Every structure is written in structure tokens, then in C-alpha cells.
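Hello, quick one for you while I still have it in my head. A protein chain has come my way and I'm curious about its shape. Can you walk me through what the C-alpha cells say about the fold? No rush at all, and the record is pasted right below.
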Amino acid sequence: MEEIETVVIGAGVVGLAIARALAQAGREVIVLEAESGFGAGISSRNSEVIHAGIYYPRGSLKARLCVEGRRRLYDYCAAHGVATRACGKLIVATTPEEIPALDDLAARGARNGVEGLRRISGAEARAMEPALRAEAALWSPGTGIVDAHGFMLALLGDAEAAGAMLALNASVRKIIRAATGLFVDVDGVTPMRLHAREVVNAAGLAAPGLSAGLAPAPPAHFAKGNYFRLRGRAPFSRLVYPAPVVGGLGVHLTIDLGGQARFGPDVEWIARPEYAVDPTRAAAFYGAIRRYWPDLADGALEPDYAGVRPKLVGPEAGGAADFRIDGPERHGVAGYVALYGIESPGLTAALAVADHAAGMLIGAR
């Protein structure tokens, strides 16, 4: 049986950020990743958007960690040569009935400390993006795009420079409370048991299941989000979002750092994670997109990819819940921190989430 001070389960953006924070604090850290590469799950199947922090209730973890994380993310990426683009975002009301929702978002964003938000008229929005249909819009200049893979590569480099190790194809089967510390049973080419003083469960979609029998965990709900890409170039230079919908932020337009425009995600509740994009879902995409871009041509969309968001509540409860980061004070298991429901804005908030989670262990000694 191998002895290790700290195990981090999951090499997504949050797991890597936590490993970095703990290694830089002097911990001996190993990151266990079930896949053959880092960032193969939620972290690589999203819009790569740097969120401003507009949508989340004041005082929530999502609000606090997104706003802090965004500020730190831009600085971190600049210092590490990771590509970003602060292109800004227009949240549009396509009917007069949607305008009050923009005012609510503007007020919520201001309460959360989001800088630079401005309510603008439809004419002002069309002056910025002539192809847009809008009765009014909320302009968020701090929203942007990040190279998520490059960000994770930089986090991994920092963690390894501080002594952390990454083990791939190392699927964790079970975490067991020991007389001192925790046992971590790992499958793979050579199954093994690790004895760790501390364990951080940042396993994304698998996180609730790994806590079974160890600590209370929420039920797992899975919201699949499908994306379609645009054939050719879009007549937009900024991100365009509709008014939010139940379970997500609506089918929005993003433009990646290479100039590729894509639309999504939609919300498809599923029983278990799977990533096939059904081409017939394009019909609903055309209808949603044409509400704010009426000139979208027939046949312009093609299936791209899908991601799955870890939800803490199902569609009957609206699908919206705060991040849940459980430490020993909540569940009573010394040395154990578990992260649940780390969906959007987890990429943006990763550095702040990492410090919050790592602090539960660093502060315990």
C-alpha cells in the first residue's frame, strides 16, 4: 500500500487548480485521472466562456467565486501566455416582454460586483452588431473567451513544478475512511490502494457516487448540452446570449479564438452521461437562434459536440443550484473535501474555487 499526503481525484480544470494550490502550499500531491489525458470531461466540453458573474444570486458561491475567479483568470492567463479575448457579451431581449429580465440581470450583476454592465437600446445593440435583432440588450464588456486547454496545461505545469504528480488511467473505485486518514482504491493496469492523509473529490460527474458510504452527497442529475457549429463565418464579433431559460443560459452564440462560431448548449435531461449529438435537434436550434439572428440560413448548422453538466437538482426544481463544496465541518470526515455541481461558471471560477477548497484543508492544520 502506497502512502501519500494528499490525493486529488479528477484532472479537470478545477482538480488541476486545486492540486496547484495545495502543492504550492507544500503538500505532497498526486492527481488521479480516470481518462488517458487531463481535462477530458466537463472541462473540454463547454463554451470556453469567461463569465462576468451576472446570473447568480448575491452571496452565493457561484457569484463570489465567479467574480473573483474572472479577475484572477485574466491576470493568470496573461502571465502564463494563455490566450484569452475580452470580446464582451450582449444579452438580448427580442421582445418587449423580455426587457424586465434584462433589468433584473443588470441589478443582480451590480449587486455581485460585476463591473461595466450597461443597459442599452435595441438601436445601440444593432449599431454594435448589425445582424442582431434586439428590442434592448445588456452589455457585459468583461465577458470573454479562454483557451481552456492552454489554461489547464498551465495549471498542470505549475502543480508539477511544485512537486505534484499526475496519474492517468487511474480510475478511483472507492474512498474508505481509515483509522487515520483515508484509503483510496484505484483501478487500472495495476490496481492499488493508497493511504492518504487528505482527499479532494473533484471528480465532476462522478463526484456524488465516490462519496457513497463516506459522506452525505447530493443525488446526481445530468443535463446534456448539445452544440452546433456554423458553416462559414458569422457576422458577429461579440458573444450573443438570449434571456436565460430553465436549466441554462439559452442557446447562445460563441466565437472561439480561431474564429469558429458555434451555438449551444441546449438542455437535454439524461439518465447517464453520453455525448452523441442528434442532428435532428438542429430544428429547435434554428428557431432559437433566429429569434436574435433572423438571417440564419437553412442548412448553415452542423453537429459539433456535446457536454454534460452536473446538476444538483433536476428539471422539476428548475435545474439551478449553487456550487456545493463540502469540507470536514459539514460532513465530519477529517481530511476530506468534495465538490459537487461544479458546472458553469466553474471554468471561470477555477482559481477561486481552488483556494476555497484548498483552504478547508490548509486551515485545518
Summary: The longest strand covers residues 301-311. The CA atoms of residues 204 and 342 lie 7 Å apart.
